[in-house]
Amino acid sequence: MQKAVESNSHTKRFGQIHTQPYSFLVTQLVSSPKHWQAEIEGVYIESGWLDISVQDQTYHLKAGNFMFIPEGVIHSYLKKADDGVVHVLKFLQEHVIKHTFANDTKTAISRMYKNYFIAESLPAMGEIVHQIQEADFGDYNECYLCCKLTELTSYFLRYPSLIVMEKSRGNEDTSNSLRSTFDFIHEHIRDGITLEALANHLGFSVCYCSRYIKKKTGMTFVEYVNASRISEAETLLLETNDNITEIAYATGFSSVQTFNRVFKQIRNINPTEYRKKRKGKK
Q1: Alpha-carbon distance 240 to 247, whole Å?
Q2: Cβ neighbours, 10 Å, residue 70
Q3: CB–CB of 234/274 below 8 Å?
Q4: Burial level of 270, CB count in 10 A (0-12/13-18/19+)?
Q5: What is the pLDDT of residues 26-53, one digit of tens each?
Q6: 76-79: long-range contacts at Cβ-Cβ below 8 A with a sequence spacing of 24 or more?
C-alpha cells in the first residue's frame, strides 16, 4: 500500500529550510493554506492535473508539466485530480550551481530560478524525477540528488523552448515581517496561539496585525490558523494510524468536538470519513 506522501528525507513544512535537497510523492492532495518556503520548489505532474496558486494567481498544471517556484514566494496547493500523481522537489540554488561552472552558466541558472515558471517535459526528464524520488545512496544521497537536480536544470538551459510560461516574482513581500508571521504561526500551530501573541512577536498592534494577516493571506487570523491545523491534520490522517482524539490535540484543537466541527466546515466531511475515503483510494 502506497502512502499518500512518500519522502526520501524527513521533511519540515512551511518555510523551514533544509541544507540538503529532498523530494516527496503526492498521491492524495493535502491542500495547503498560503505559505512560503526557503528553498526552490519544483512540482512535476506525472499524471492527472493540479491547480496551484502563486502570487494570488491560479495555474492549472497538466500531466507532463513542471512548475518551479522560487524561495520566499507565497503559494498554495488547491485541487488535484483524484488519481493524479505529483512529485515535489525542494532544493537550494547552491545544490545546482557548482563553483567550477563558468560565470555565464552560474548567471543563467540563478536568473532562471529567480522567477517562477511552467515548463513542458521530455521523457528523460520524467525519468530523472523518478531517479530523484527513488534515490537510496545512504551517506551519499546528497551527492546523487545534487547531480540529478543539476542534470534536470541543464535540460531547461539547453532547451529554453520547454518553458511555456515565466513570470517575475515582482514585488513579492518576502520581508522579515511576512516570514516571521508564517514561521510563528506554524511553529506554534499545536499551541493555543493567539492574535495578541503574534502581534507582540511582530511588534504590531493587534488591530494592524489583524489587517496584515487578512491582506497577505485572504483569511482572518482564526481562519488561517484553522486552515493550517486542518492541513496538518490531513497529513496525520493519511500518514499515521493515530486516532481522531490524538490528531485533534496534536494539531492544537482544544477538543475533539471543535476539531470535528472545523474539519467538516473546511472539508465538508468529518475526519473519520475523510480518512476512510482517502485511504480507500490508495
Answers
A1: 9
A2: 23
A3: yes
A4: middle
A5: 766 656 777 777 789 999 999 999 999 9
A6: 76/31, 76/32, 76/33, 76/34, 76/35, 76/52, 77/29, 77/30, 77/31, 77/32, 77/50, 77/51, 77/52, 77/53, 78/31, 78/51, 78/52, 78/53, 79/29, 79/31, 79/50, 79/51
Burial of 280 (0-12, 13-18, 19+ CB in 10 A): exposed
- pLDDT tens by residue, 85-133: 999 999 999 999 999 999 999 999 999 999 999 999 999 999 999 999 9
Q: Are 28 and 6 in contact (CB under 8 A)?
A: no
Residue 188: partners with Cβ closer than 8 Å, 6 or more residues away: 197
Q: What is the pTM of this model?
A: 0.72
The strands making up 75-80's β-sheet, listed across from edge to edge, are 57-62, 49-54, 75-80
- The one-letter code for the residue type at 187 is E
pLDDT at 212 over 50: yes
**Exposed, middle or buried by CB within 10 Å (0-12, 13-18, 19+), for 176?**
exposed
* pLDDT of the residue at 176: 67
Amino acid found at 64:
G
Q: Which three cell numbers stand for residue 224?
A: 488561517
